Amino acid sequence: MSVIIWRHPKPLNAAGICLGHTDLAVDPRRTRNLAYKVQQEAKRLELAPVLHVSPLQRSRGVGEFLAKQGWQVKIDPLLIEFNFGTWDGLPWEQIDRHEMDSWCNNFADYAPGGGENLKQLFNRVESWLSRTTTETRLVVGHAGWINAARMLAAKKPLPSAPEHWSSSVNYGKKSILNLA
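RESULT FIELD:
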């Protein structure tokens, strides 16, 4: 089974902020452009027109565009981005340095801003990935979720330090996860 996942389009007004559950809008042209990429991939691979998205509008918007084209869209809270709790939506420079250090020193277990920790994110991602299916799934997701999914698919361990965390995929970039 494979998962073909694109990172959502670049949200508006996101520069320099801690972005997890904050529900920012996306330029409609970028949403439409990514929707076309998803359509082309489905057509090329002869896949059913079904798209999995998170409830956040930067992911969900692509699904809403495709739903108007007759696609089935599955909104799933397990696909939502990492929860940064009270940090979410704040400029990074406004987040207390001691709290940032606490997270870096206990990377897998610390819940930034009282949100979720990496163990919880990995468990959530693994839960979604482990759903029994033989079909290729098309997804529009988020950078943190995609990083965790890529690490799980590659059978890498939970990152214990920030330097073990992968760089974020670019907006609109496709990743293919082959799951055994």
